[in-house]
Amino acid sequence: GAVVSQHPSWVICKSGTSVKIECRSLDFQATTMFWYRQFPKQSLMLMATSNEGSKATYEQGVEKDKFLINHASLTLSTLTVTSAHPEDSSFYICSASPGSGGEQYFGPGTRLTVT
Amino acid sequence: AQKVTQAQTEISVVEKEDVTLDCVYETRDTTYYLFWYKQPPSGELVFLIRRNSFDEQNEISGRYSWNFQKSTSSFNFTITASQVVDSAVYFCALSATSYGKLTFGQGTILTVHP
After folding, report:
1. Of the candidates B43, B97, B101, which has its C-beta nearest A46's C-beta?
2. For residues B50-64, b (16+ Cβ closer than 10 Å) or e, as one string?
3. What are the pLDDT digits (tens) for B49-94?
């Protein structure tokens, strides 16, 4: 089956620093990747959609200068949280899709804690 | 705009009871896909089912069954003879395609007591 990995699985960083989260499709080429955020006891909210080689499309209310998304290859997308603050602490989940005719596969998530 | 509503925030049952999780959706698309996911305490989403808008047949998979009714815009999920391992958060989700961005419901926390 299709496998999507995320690294790291959890990270603790200090306020004001930046942290990068990687999302990889291990056994298929992902033309599209999605980044979701989930606050404790809440639902998943889409942050942005990234297509390989293109700029990401951000959902309304998501600061694109704060959450930098790069989808440089068909198997890797990265989310960089810049100048992180405690309110950015959340569970970040990526998903990947091979595109039309395929399905969407989720990564295991990355738990970010900003102190 | 798409919207998914899971009216039940939390459900608590005793093992072996049947339980139904409700899901109501809104969309203007004529073609769309509905999903159910399970999220155990580990956080990783577990895919349970995908159903497209043209297929209204009910689905059964072991103790799990799904009832899709376009007339009421509902896609309910029933667990028969619940088990402690079924305890998790369950999300209903909607997408315009099988591979596109998902709109999730608020989730239902299911607790199955021994």
Report:
1. B101
2. bbebeeeeeeeeeeb
3. 999 999 888 889 999 999 999 999 999 999 999 999 999 999 999 9
